[in-house]
Design goal:
The complex is a heterodimer of chains A (296) and B (285). Chain A is of the alpha/beta class. Chain A folds into two domains: 212 residues, P-loop containing nucleotide triphosphate hydrolases (Rossmann fold), CATH 3.40.50.300; 59 residues. Chain A is 33% helix and 30% strand. Chain A is built from eleven helices and 14 strands. In chain A, the strands form three sheets. Chain A has a six-stranded mixed beta sheet, sandwiched between helices. A four-stranded antiparallel beta sheet of chain A has the order 2-1-4-5. Chain A is globular, with a radius of gyration of 23 Å. Chain B is an all-alpha fold. Chain B has one domain. Helices cover 72% and strands 0% of the residues of chain B. In chain B, 44% of the residues are buried. Classes of the chains: A alpha/beta (296), B mainly alpha (285). Chains A and B meet through β1, β2, β5, α2 and β6 of A and α1 of B.
Chain lengths: 296, 285
């Protein structure tokens, strides 16, 4: 399988601390790749370097084998782009903007754009200044996707969308994958990444910390566990379970972080009368801190 | 991790198709930008057109032009020349002193604002990433913005010309359409020059305020240098360095086409420098 995106030692420095350092990344054609990291980690810098908006300080990058520095226009002809922070001309309607972008791309038929608008519930007729943040985001998504590019680069695509529209968007991403197209997807939200991404890359402080299949990343993560019994129980045996950390006991309630499989926990809890059991996955930030906190 | 860069099927394609695509995107961008500018262009055209029309309408009220000319002749020659008040008894001389010698100081701000907003302004507004997410070369953004501004400026000049000439007809002022057309068309290169300068600043700098202020200051400095050069013999050598030196008085003498072409070329040179600067720099958000 060939690479839709490849970077080798890609570096972009602005000042002392911001930017990306020696990012080696390969996104395969046809996969949905999640690009994760906290704010300021370097996600947007990486994406903007791929589009040729920023010039690399060191290293190289290719999109479909084309050097981002030399063939930026050809790359952009084959890529749909949703920037993380963007503004659309506020006097124009979505329909006007899409017609303009269609002219720039030589696209004659806006049928797919209208289909996407219907699926996302986007209003293409009102001027941008009269649209809510979520509706502007929908128009942003449509302009990135309407020309059916072989590669979609979406920076925080679900930002501002309500949950139903988020779900519809993730289904569209599934459709894009089914057509053999590639999606490069940056996000903070672990659940949506887990839902659609084949592989995940995590960037922190400008460095690519890991690239893993999504399932492995999520399974590696700990869980927040809260057990509530019908009467106070001795927390000692729970503290002694493998993988239990930060245990707190408060009468009949015990809470801790579980870094191992829950089998031993379930068997121990079953010896008491359990009133409720909460078993929650951590936020992405907590995963970063847990697995990559020691690395820099 | 490296999968190695793959050889793309995306070839250069036939030259004619490539040229058609290039002109197609440039045309679409110019059309889009003119559309975005049309409201402000109309406001500029109406404001200057109404001002010019008001000046034309007051011309017949100066009943005894001979007395006005005598009054003006009492001023020192340098001063008369500096402020174009040598020939107030004719509609052309009157309009030159009251409208067209000063009009570039106002109208140049239309291209300055439009061109400073094209790159640095779009960066500040965060509209550039979406626009350049399309297969639009950077040089086309610079050239397309300039062409659109040049067209809008022609539109403004046409509106000013129509208001001026229409009022002259209405008030029976002896002003020909050709003379009016020369006067308003002569505004085009000088204003465009400052637009080109703003575009260059917009391409070099990342802040719209600077890309507006620098050509704005240059505009008044150039005007001042020309006026002072007319008043003072010591400063006369400064005049050729000012773009106003080449502006002339088209309403009285017709357009000096050599100067017209020279100033237009200077504006295009600024655009060329803007293309080079913008193609080599990062785009901020």
């Amino acid at each position: 399988m060939s690479a839709a995106i490849e970077t080798q030692k890609l570096t972009k420095t602005y000042g002392r601390s911001r930017g990306i350092r020696y990012v080696d990344l390969a996104v395969r054609e046809g996969e949905v790749f999640g690009f994760l990291g906290p704010n300021g980690a370097g996600k947007t810098t990486t994406i903007r370097t791929l589009f040729g908006f920023l010039r690399p300080s060191e290293g190289r990058a290719w999109v479909f084998g084309m050097d981002v520095r030399k063939r930026s226009v050809e790359i952009r002809a084959r890529v749909g782009n949703l920037p993380g922070e963007f503004v659309l001309e506020d006097r124009m309607s979505g329909e006007d903007l899409l017609q303009f972008f269609a002219r720039l791309r030589g696209v004659k038929d806006l049928g797919y754009a209208r289909e996407l608008a219907e699926r996302l519930g986007a209003d293409l007729h009102r001027p941008m200044r009269r649209l809510s943040r979520g509706n502007k985001q929908k128009v942003g998504l449509i302009q990135a996707m309407f020309h059916r590019p072989p590669l979609l680069v979406l920076d925080e695509p679900t930002s501002g969308l309500d949950p139903l529209v988020q779900e519809e968007f993730l289904e569209i991403v599934d459709d894009v994958r089914a057509e053999g197209r590639t999606v490069f997807f940056s996000s903070h939200v672990l659940s949506e990444v887990e839902r659609v991404c084949d592989r995940v890359g995590i960037i922190r402080d400008g460095q690519l910390v890991t690239v893993e299949p999504t399932r492995e990343l999520v399974n590696k993560a700990f869980r927040h566990v809260t057990l509530t019994f019908d009467e106070p129980v001795d927390p000692g045996p729970f503290r002694a379970l493998p993988g239990v950390r930060d245990l707190k006991a408060d009468g009949a309630r015990i809470s801790f972080a579980l870094h191992e499989a829950p089998d031993g926990l379930v068997k121990l809890a079953a010896k008491h009368r359990l009133v409720s059991l909460d078993y929650e996955r951590p936020s992405l930030e907590e995963i970063f801190l847990t697995y990559y906190g020691g690395r820099s | 991790m490296s999968l190695g860069p793959v050889i793309t099927k995306w070839g250069a394609g036939p030259r004619r198709a490539h040229a058609r695509r290039t002109w197609g995107t440039l045309f679409a961008l110019v059309l889009h930008t003119v559309r975005l500018q049309r409201r402000s262009a109309l406001i500029w055209g109406l404001a200057l057109g109404i001002y010019s029309a008001a000046i034309v309408a007051t011309f017949p009220t100066f009943g005894d032009m001979e007395q006005l000319d005598q009054l003006m002749r009492a001023y020192p020659e340098g001063l008369r020349e500096a402020f174009n008040i040598e020939d107030m008894g004719t509609p052309e001389g009157f309009l030159d002193s009251q409208v067209f010698s000063l009009a570039p100081l106002a109208l140049a701000f239309f291209p300055i604002l439009a061109c400073s907003g094209a790159i640095a302004g779009a960066e500040e507004r965060q509209t550039l990433d979406v626009l350049l997410g399309n297969p639009l070369p950077r040089w086309q953004l610079v050239v397309g913005s300039f062409l659109a501004t040049a067209l809008s400026l022609l539109g403004i000049a046409a509106v000013v010309g129509l208001f001026t000439w229409g009022t002259a007809l209405l008030f029976d002022v002896d002003l020909s359409l050709l003379t009016t057309a020369a006067a308003v068309l002569n505004l085009w290169p000088i204003c465009l020059f400052f637009g080109g300068l703003a575009l260059l600043c917009s391409a070099l700098l990342h802040r719209r305020a600077l890309a507006t202020a620098i050509p704005g200051v240059a505009l008044f400095a150039a005007y001042l240098a020309d006026v002072l050069g007319k008043v003072s013999d010591d400063l006369e050598d400064l005049r050729p360095a000012s773009v106003f030196y080449y502006y002339g008085t088209a309403i009285k003498d017709g357009i000096d086409w050599a100067n017209f072409a020279g100033v237009t070329l200077a504006a295009l040179f600024c655009v060329l420098l803007a293309v080079l600067a913008f193609s080599r720099r990062d785009i901020y958000t």
